[in-house]
Amino acid sequence: MRIPRVSGRILTWSLALVVLLAGTVIGSAMLGPVRIDPITVSKAVLNLTGIVAYEVPSAHQTIVADVRLPRIALGAVVGFSLAAAGTVMQGFFRNPLADPSIIGVSTGAAAGAVAAIAFPALLPFSSVHVPAFVGAIGTALFVYAVATEGGRTPVATLLLAGVAVQAFLGAVISYMLVLSGENLREAVVWMMGHLHRSSWDDVTFALPVAVVGTVVLGAYAREMNVLLLGEEDAHHLGVDVERTKLLLLALASIVTAAGVAVAGVIGFVGLIVPHIMRLIVGPDHRILLPTSALAGASFLVATDTIARLDTLPLPLGLEVGTPIVPVGIVTAALGAPFFLYLLTKREVHAL
After folding, report:
1. Rounded to whole angstroms, how far apart are CA atoms 13 and 18?
2. The pTM is what?
3. In whole angstroms, how far apart are CA 205 and each of 12, 142, 199, 265?
4. Is residue 350 part of a domain?
5. Rounded CA gap, 287 and 222, in Å?
6. CA 41 → CA 22, 28, 89, 201, 221, distances in Å?
7. How far is CA 12 from the centre of its chain?
8. How far apart are CA 299 and CA 64, in angstroms?
9. What's the total number of domains in the chain?
10. Mean residue pLDDT across the chain
11. Least crowded by CB within 10 Å, which of 65, 164, 187, 248?
12. How far apart are CA 280 and CA 288, in angstroms?
């Protein structure tokens, strides 16, 4: 049976990126104050499936399963969601500089989270996940409502409405930070983007939304490809433009909200990863969406490994001391210079 060319490319790239993700996960789980060899890590991970029961030192099993793996898994889920949403947003706005936060989703999540942290008596939630998620979705709906007139939602108006709402929410967040008192540090760390204190409950919260949302977005890959031609041409080719735009925006916002709600505002994942994958696999969203999502998962796991270690191993057995910081600092420190490099090489193209 002959596999169609596009399907074969999707399968090949996806398998390669799954292998890369598995290697990144194992490598990350090896590193920490206690170094664990890759075979022991692999056995500890497989023990979690309940299918096999390898003999692993109890201390190592606890470190991998209860300390490192929840954080690694959450990083993979958040990277997956941000890269998938960034891919859709770049196609939606036909702009390689677009990212998941362009219409204020991340700022809305930050507003909800900071409100819950700064005023726990008024918003007595057990975690910031719910207020952050609600803030993100509420902001996206508000921006869409403001930008829509007469049943049409011009992309330029949507972008400008997002910028305005982000500016306003930024002022609100700053005011809440002034009033947050002893909760200031927690709120600031959350806004920097973090994966510390991750738990399997966080993964359970974000994983279904990220996976289901991305799968549904993948079903609209053809429509996203056609929209790249322009809204008028897409309409002539049979695409219900306004309905498709609403669905894409809603799904991308939900996927983004799931990631931001559990990890805070992590920049550049949804900007850099889709752009790099577009240069590698091309603009076809049937291939670009799944590959960007998988690459985003590996990227965030790798950057969070750098963020959480106080010493990084180097070749020839050398090590270098590094500060332990929120992962959002690392993604920005790596992403911004790399993007500037792409600009200088003229590798940033219009879609």
Report:
1. 9
2. 0.92
3. 30, 24, 10, 17
4. no
5. 11
6. 12, 10, 37, 22, 37
7. 23
8. 20
9. 1
10. 90
11. 164
12. 9
